[in-house]
Amino acid sequence: MENRSTSPLKDTVVAQKDIIDIIRSFRKKPPARTDSVSKQFNFSLVPSAGYTLSTGFAADLSGNVVFYTDKNSTEKLSTAFSNVTYDQHKQFLFHTNTNIWSKNLNYNYIGDWRFLKYPESTFGLGSLTTEGETNLINYSYFRFYQTVLRKIYSSLYTGFGYNFDYHYHITQTGNADKTISDFKIYGLNSKSRSSGLTYNLLFDNRKNPVNPLNGVYANAIYRSNFQFLGSDSNWQSLTFDFRKYFKVGEKSNNILAFWMLDWLILNGHPPYLDLPSTGWDTNGNTGRGYPQGRFRGNGMLYLEGEYRFNITRNGLLGGVVFTNLESFSSYQDSKFQRILPGYGPGLRIKFNKHSNTNLCIDYGIGNSSQGFFVNLGEVF
């Protein structure tokens, strides 16, 4: 049976198609699909090879699972995402994100676990850095973030978490223009640790975070790092993440989406690699148009807007146009400097119609940089 408007993930009366349907159509007697809208778990797995601005040529394996914790639920979908990447810059990345809701939605469990072996070009601190300040830093990185939230009213949750960042085997080549690097001025070390507790306040009434059709997401995180927990120094930060989705038209899945992210160091002296930076948000999606780590500072202000629209009525193909603005503060006086724009178009290919998962291929254009950006699931 075709997937129609009876799906809690769809608001269209047109039969939906995805890549799996297209592949099955070439077989004379295709076997029945084992996934369905009523199935508790829906998996998407994408092996790929390609080129992006941040990785160069890369081999990648991405997968997600979208599910209801309660078989009879039609409320919030839980998600788990994993990614393994190796690229021409000899970067190795293993990354897992989880966002799991308990039965009756009383608790929300959020995880972010990573291991990276990561040569990365950095460019110093603030919004005024130049290509001449390119500084290749090589390091290994382990991250463990885990948060537990408890419902206090409707879609409002609060709770605590633990964040641990460990960078080690850190080396730098120095600035391309032979000037002293901001990394050395800030405090070059061969390893760094940040270990702290977080207090979280979350409002989330989206049903499907992989591809939201409406709703609001607002998350405030106060992080306090302590030496008695193993941190190199005591320092505090505040992150506020706000997203809003508007459906354009009653009979379409076209969406106007907005994203604001404020990431601020409140006090103390964090390790250089733990400072707010382009592309180092939870899902690594800020700053389409710029390579990861292009800008870094004591504070980051970010704003993005995106229009998502169908190209085919069956949902197989879609498109987006987006624009973003970001600004970073300098280390010396913590004042925000110039605004850095990014913009571009994107293609959406329906990978799994039951979880509404899209393969997202975007072309971002920034100041003096441009390139492809690829995601399994919407950017925000």
From TrEMBL:
What is the protein named? BamA/TamA family outer membrane protein
Record the organism: Mucilaginibacter arboris
